[in-house]
Specification:
The protein is an alpha/beta fold and about 900 residues long. The chain has 35 helices and 33 strands. Bound molecules: adenosine-5'-diphosphate and magnesium ion (MG) (2 copies). One magnesium ion (MG) binds next to loops.
Length: about 900
């Protein structure tokens, strides 16, 4: 018989391995059981499985009798473990009800604490604890939370009532409220519920419990959970578990407390305990921003120059116990842990542990440090860092020299710098970002409803909330710079304006954030490029040791080539030559070439271009000395280079001495209905061989010149684009070979080179065996291959592809992440056929996909020799290639 419920903690600990399986009991439940299993103090409780949630949601039915029976038995287990009884008037057991999916999901139901309280048990709790204030504080918290989370009432109702009560009593802080004050507020709360719902607040603890369980299950299908799942690729059929756990109380006076902590610093990765806590508080007080939390350690308090005592100083014994728990947990999980704890009258209790979210910088440092500490091996370290997260480190930080107009300082919640226009709500952020504007989302505090806006924003700024607030945690996870808790910001939504420090701003004004320091500045501040040293370098070295595929770059300027080499590129996989043609100084000659009436005219113009192209190639070969450089001959439809405005025609006419009318007529002849499928790619070389001839000559002359300088010779790989047939390649290879032969004879030096093709048409993939008889290498041009296989225009699909992804037609944009099951088949087939005709033929990929980790994993699977990515993606590709290689072992 499968169980629906597993117990954990104390004498209630289940020994069923399923009780520690995340897929069954969710992450929170599994880790609670795990912690209890290694002897840590965990309040006893039980978990209802995710399977039961899935069943409940699918059948839309009520709870089954067997579930009810198992819950009753589990509840009895807790009762005997803690020596209290649920609903008992004298010594009541209170529980928390918490959601917990396989992975932590901010979109899920909020926790309900102190469940089991009613008008009778509150008296019993006051008696047994000897503290009436605590009992009534707990009861008002319970009514508030339960009404909000389970009964669906607006939490503002309760918050406003509390504010008014405090004001009336002349109090400033919650801690000033006395037992009678809380008791009076409870009466008000109950009246509020009755008034809003037309029925009394539920007094039966069992009714309360089942209400909360139902709310957890239902929250799996809430809108915010769905948004979160969509953004994070979480399947909708996982379901959530429900954790019911005996309460421990952090609000029992000054020897009690609650807190959250990380075993290492999640922003920097430093090996230092890190966290926040509050004396005499419960649950989410720490992250809710109601009171300012205190630092955990003395060192962190002193560094921040804060007065209120750290936990290390105020509760040395409980802190020492906590520190021992940190070490135990890290040794057990071999991972940085994010934990939640409560101290009840001096005794420490663990309420949660999970793998801590971290910045890319921290992920690197921790991975490298933990190898040094012997906690993990190199392989684990490589697999642990998300390649895409490296992006954060590859992006600019503020130039320390740049002038800054500092407005306020908040908490450095998520590192990195960002400038953008202020937007005041998530929808506006999404809208303006979709139109290409850089925006900074500014909120009092964020909540799960803001996630889409946080995603769209370049940076996030909040007026309230600590380092573990929602904004901070989510921003770090997304890699967005974030400054939180920046006091001195007031927002007026009605007039779409805000005050930052002493100055007034309107929505749309530009500000800059530095998430590494907490600085908020007016206007845009200059930034500088990052460097790949220290831990980054170490991890990259390890990755290089474990990867099989080479990583090249797509680059066409010496500057890009230099950046790419610094990032570890091992060659160029795609050097597009048309970019060189667009240069201001050359465009006249290019236009002359295109508009020439005959070959003679074209050759005259090409002669002007030759030295320019040669100089370009020379500069690139210099940077890429000794490495392979794949140069693609001219590819785009010629009319892309043509003049448009009358003035441009006149200018050109003057420059090359041909009448405007003639020029316009020639331009008209070049017009195409469907240029992407028109006169482009190798079709240019077939019709105007002299163009490819000039390019080949320029690149071989440059290669010989660089070799003559005495350094390492470059290895040119001449790539013919858009080939569909063997014959095309054969004809054009002859052009290239002839140019090479001539140049080598003139220069008295022979260099190794290859001629190959891009596989970017389905026909080329299908005919790969024939094409490989001529071509010496293939490079999969997956941008065009995707376009031509799907019959989907790269330039026009952005408008509707979003809907396709939303409706699940494609898991991701196929131009970003390779359509493995479709386009991937052509790649696989072409690789196979190409290898059959030419064993050992060199195979690479040069589409955008060469920098996408999922696509890179596919390239490893079909055993390509290299991937080629844009310069900033090179480190990502190196790591992803290593992970792919390790995954295949
Ligand atoms: P989240 O998933 O949002 O972190 P949790 O279920 O962890 O939500 O609950 C939030 C907080 O509620 C915990 O950090 C803890 O402070 C408090 N809490 C949960 N269960 C208990 C309990 N049994 N006793 C005391 N506090 C609890
Ligand atoms: Mg929470
Ligand atoms: Mg938690």
């Amino acid at each position: 018989m499968t169980s629906y419920v597993f117990t954990f903690g104390g004498s209630a600990q289940s020994d069923d391995p399923r009780s520690r399986d995340k897929t069954v009991v969710g992450g929170k439940g599994a880790n609670l059981a795990e912690m209890a299993g290694i002897g840590l103090p965990v309040p006893p409780g039980f978990t209802i499985t995710t399977e039961e949630c899935v069943r409940y949601l699918a059948e839309g039915s009520d709870f089954s009798d067997s579930l009810r029976a198992e819950v009753a038995a589990a509840l009895a287990h807790i009762e005997s473990a803690v020596g209290k009884a649920f609903g008992d008037h004298a010594n009541p057991l209170l529980v928390s009800v918490r959601s917990g999916a396989r992975v932590s999901m901010p979109g899920m139901m909020d926790t309900v604490l102190n469940l089991g309280l009613n008008d009778r048990t509150v008296e019993g709790l006051a008696q047994s604890a000897g503290d009436a204030r605590f009992a009534w504080d707990s009861y008002r918290r319970f009514i508030h939370m339960y009404s909000d989370v389970v009964l669906g009432l607006d939490h503002h109702l309760f918050e406003d009532a509390l504010e008014i009560a405090k004001e009336d009593a002349g109090y400033y802080a919650d801690v000033e409220m006395q037992a009678e004050d809380w008791q009076a507020l409870v009466s008000e709360y109950k009246a509020l519920v009755e008034q809003e719902l037309g029925q009394a607040f539920p007094q039966d603890p069992h009714e309360q419990l089942w209400g909360a369980i139902r709310a957890v299950f239902d929250s799996w299908d809430s809108d915010r959970a769905k948004v979160y799942r969509r953004l994070n690729d979480i399947p909708g059929d996982w379901g959530t578990a429900v954790n019911v756990q005996a309460m421990v109380f952090g609000n029992m006076g000054d020897t009690s407390a609650t807190g959250v902590a990380f075993t290492r610093d999640p922003a920097t990765g430093e090996r230092a305990y890190y966290g926040e806590w509050l004396i005499n508080a419960q649950g989410e007080d720490v992250v809710a921003g109601i009171r300012t939390p205190q630092y955990l350690t003395r060192q962190s308090r002193e560094r921040a120059g804060a007065k209120p005592l750290s936990m290390e100083e105020a509760m040395p014994e409980a802190f020492a116990e906590l520190a021992a728990v940190f070490d135990l947990l890290e040794k057990h999980y071999r991972e940085m842990q994010d934990i939640e704890f409560t101290v009840e009258r001096g005794k420490l209790w663990m309420l949660q542990t999970r793998t801590g979210k971290r910045t890319a910088k921290a992920a690197l440092k921790m991975a490298v440090d933990m190898v040094g500490e012997g906690l993990i091996d190199e392989r684990t370290a490589i697999l642990r860092v998300d390649p895409m997260a490296l992006d954060q480190l590859l992006h600019p930080t503020l130039d320390p020299e740049a002038p800054r107009d500092l407005l306020v300082k908040g908490l450095p919640a998520s590192p990195g710098a960002a400038s953008g226009a202020v937007v005041l709500d998530a929808d506006t952020a999404e809208k303006r970002a979709a139109m290409g504007e850089a925006v900074i989302l500014v909120r009092v505090e964020t909540s799960p409803e803001d996630i889409h806006g946080m995603h769209a924003a370049k940076g996030i700024l909040t007026a309230r909330g600590g380092m573990t607030s929602h904004a901070a945690v989510v921003a770090r996870g997304m890699g967005r710079p974030c400054v939180s808790g920046a006091a001195g910001i007031s927002i007026d939504i009605a007039s779409r304006s805000l005050r930052i420090g002493a100055r007034d701003f309107r929505e749309g004004d530009v500000i800059t954030l530095d998430g590494s320091t907490g600085d908020v500045m007016a206007g845009e501040v200059r930034t500088i490029e990052p460097e790949l040293v220290g831990d980054f370098g170490t991890l990259m070295e390890w990755a290089d040791r474990h990867r099989r595929m080479k990583v090249r770059t797509n680059a066409e300027t010496p500057a890009d080539c230099r950046v790419a080499r610094q990032f570890g590129a091992e060659g160029i996989g795609l050097c597009r030559t048309e970019h060189m043609f667009f240069d201001d100084k050359r465009i006249a000659a290019v236009r002359q070439m295109i508009l020439a009436e005959d070959e003679k005219g074209r050759r005259a113009a090409l002669a002007k271009l030759l030295p320019e192209q040669r100089a370009d190639f020379h500069a690139i070969f210099d940077v890429m000395a000794g490495l392979p450089v794949t140069i693609r001959l001219l590819d785009p439809p010629l009319h892309e280079f043509l003049p448009h405005a009358d003035a441009e025609f006149e200018e050109l006419s003057e420059a090359i001495g041909i009448g405007v009318d003639t020029l316009k007529r020639r331009a008209g002849e070049l017009y195409e209905f469907n240029p992407m499928l028109g006169h482009r790619g190798c079709r240019l070389g077939i019709t105007f061989p002299e163009i490819y001839e000039m390019q080949a000559r320029a690149l071989f002359e440059a290669a010989c010149d660089v070799a003559a300088q005495g350094g390492e010779a470059p290895v040119p790989e001449v790539m013919i684009p858009l080939v569909a047939t063997r014959k095309e390649l054969e004809l054009l290879k002859a052009v290239v070979d002839k140019a090479a032969g001539e140049v080598f004879a003139e220069k008295g030096r022979t260099l190794h080179y290859q001629v190959g093709t891009m596989i970017e048409l389905p026909r080329a993939a299908l005919m790969a065996d024939k094409i490989a008889e001529v071509g010496e290498f293939f490079s999969f041009g997956t941008n065009d291959l995707t376009q031509t296989t799907l019959g989907l225009s790269r330039d026009d699909s952005a408008k509707f592809l979003g809907v396709y992804v939303e409706k699940g037609i494609f898991p991701r944009d196929p131009f970003v992440s390779l359509d493995i099951e479709g386009v991937g088949q052509l790649v696989e087939l072409a690789a196979e056929r190409g290898r059959k005709a030419r064993p050992g033929i060199k195979l690479g990929i040069c589409g955008e996909h060469g920098g996408d980790p999922a696509s890179i994993a596919f390239c490893e699977k079909v055993a390509l020799d290299y991937v080629s990515a844009s310069p900033f993606r090179v480190p990502i590709a190196r790591l992803a290639a290593a992970q792919a290689a390790l995954a295949g072992k």
